[in-house]
Amino acid sequence: MTSYHLNTGISPEPLSASGRSSEKMSLPTLQSKMKCDPEGYESELLLVYNQFKSSLELFEQQAALNFASISGIGSDPTVAKDLGDRVMFLAHVTPFYPTQLGHFPKELADFLGSSARSLPSGLRRHVAQALILLINRKAVDIGETLALFMEIQTLGDRVLRKLAFSHVIQSIRRMNQKHKNEAKNRALQNILFAMLQQEDEAKSKRSLITLCELHRRKVWFDDRTANAICTACFHSSSRIMIASLSFLLDYEKIEDDDDSDASSSEDESTPQAHQVALSKEAVYKAHNKGTSSSKKKKQAKLQRAIRSMKKQQRLSSERTNSNYYSPLNHLKDPQGFVEKLFSRLQTCNERFEVKMMMLKVIARTIGLHSLILLSFYPFIQKYAQPHQREVTSILAAAVQACHDMVPPDAVEPLFKQVVNQFVHDRSRPESIAVGLNVTREICLRMPLLMTEELLQDLALYKKSHEKAVSIAARSLIGLFREVCPSLLIKKDRGCPTDPKARPKAYGEANVLSNVPGVELLDHVEEDGDNTDEHTSSGSDDEHDIDEMVASGDDEGIQESSYDTGSEDDDEIKDKVSEDEDGGNNLDDDDDDNNVLYDEEEEEEEESEEEVEGEEGEENENELKEEAVESNENGLKESKAKKRKMSDFDTQVTAADTSLRALKKLAGTKLGTTSSDSLDGILSNEDFKRIKELKAKEEAKTALTQHGLLRKGTDAKSTAVKIPNSDQLSLKRLNPSKLEVHVRKKLSKEERLELVKAGREDRGKYQARTAVKQKKTGGSSNRQKEHKKAMPLAAKRSKVARSRVEKKKQQQRSGKQFRGKKAWK
Fold first, then answer.
1. What phi and psi, each to the nearest 5 degrees, are found at residue 278?
2. What are the tens digits of pLDDT across the range 384-401?
């Protein structure tokens, strides 16, 4: 085998001593040869390794003596480049020589840790890359070098900082990709947590950034990491505190009610497609009824309804999912966290933006965990002024800090301050709208604050000419129609679903005694029993909502099948028609009278429920006797007059009440037997059915809000659902929601931009005569009238008229005063 000579300053004598001829070879070529034949190149490896050690000692001595001469080793670029090449060479061949290079990784790490600040930037980067290569080849553990790479990030080298940060993130992510090693993760977390608590601002900041990035990527998505990030709010350095506060505030993105197309694309990218229940009638009308423009509007409404339902279902699935985390949601001691941060807010001398961030975090934590911090509301009360800077953000924080566990007496001064300062006749429309919106949001969480007199005064703003003010007042009225209609005057109550509704008293809680949603199954059974009472066929179509998976595209909606009816409904209708034909042999006119009397009978249903089976039998016997008597009288007196309408009406009502009583009695018996057979145990099919019915109820609500459901539907099923306290605490309030529909005053530059934008499609300005002169396509009707030949009589009358006018003009011209003549 031939011997080789390196072109990096290696003498050929040791290579030719073995009797082999030497030739020059570069380090990459030698590296490839060593990978193919590791045993044949051990001498060359030892030679390069010894040269690396000698260069390493020189650099360490230079760092120890602070050697800064111009002719020093560190300032020589060729020496630094040779050492960097040898480091990369040895890092590549280390897996092939585990015994010879067993101490090389530790030597390299010690060298980088001791001489990192004195090394040239290029050599320092080469050493870091070689160490990263060894860690990726699993020659070194990440736990041994994590502190080193975190310290490297504090140097002034931006490229090296980016390299070390990406290496730490990717190594920990790769380690937890298949399964999480809790012991190793805990060891790494302890290193970063210790650095976060240090007084050194640079190290603490880099450790906080690393923890935030790992938590955002859901690599370390546990309570320990969340609590470590939250405790960084109490760091002595204001920069660390600001970084932690900004991460906590920006972690949860604010989701508006009107989602954009980006939100729909996010919905489609989720692995589990959410099922959306829609009305067949609404989908059919959006594609097959009306003009093309009206179809586009209906389809747009349908898409908005689909997006809103998908968002609600996604949020509900996130709430039920155990992997859903938030840094503030998993504080070990939220009350202590809030009190400590609030005390720092009261005593700190930071700028206004930092105080606002602390205020928002405190309010968010209070709302999430339903905490009680009574001194927070008087503190925020002094900022509730219309002229205050960022007043909408302050009011949004005040709203989030309100929940049903806070005593109303503690929030009442703040509530009165908002109403008195924002909502009065001399205030600007923008302030009135913001004040009404804040009042609505606070009353949504704490309705006990509102009084009857105050609500009626605020409801008068619904007649305001400003759109934002009237909309805010109407939204407040709509809220109390559902919460407590008795506080409104009669004309503002509308048609509430529950006229006797009242807000819960302070401390009152609803304890569930059954599975949520079981009542939906009972309603479905009642609707199935009462299908024979519906006379119109259109009502079945209105309430018939089938479940289908609606995609965000129009094609998916167009390809969905439209079912005209169900076989069960047809069978029930047939049975009902057979029963009615067998029980009542009446004429068509009598059927019409039955329909007229159905409304009166529906009003008296409460009294009819007490009718028993025995009374129904007596009514039937009386009816049969009256029918027999009437038949006998009809046979005896053939020429008698017709029966009076009143007698016939009494017979019809008696027959109908008897049938209804029997049906209700049979229904109650069936209901008792079914409930006894169930024994309160629900099967998997029942739970699936409850989930489907809940989706249908949400679909009805969404379609009603977007105006896609017919007005004749049941009001109770389409009522707007008021979210409970848990749902309100999960979502952060967007401050822009408080000033919705408010017209902001534009500056002169913005107004000019709007004017120029309106002129883009318009042509160049021209006078009206110039436009007429450029007219093509012949003369107009007025021009033709001028050219039209007049008849002889018209010409004579025109000449005579002009002659008279000339004569009058001459007479007037002589009498006019022309002033004194100069020549007289």
1. -130, 160
2. 999 999 999 999 999 999
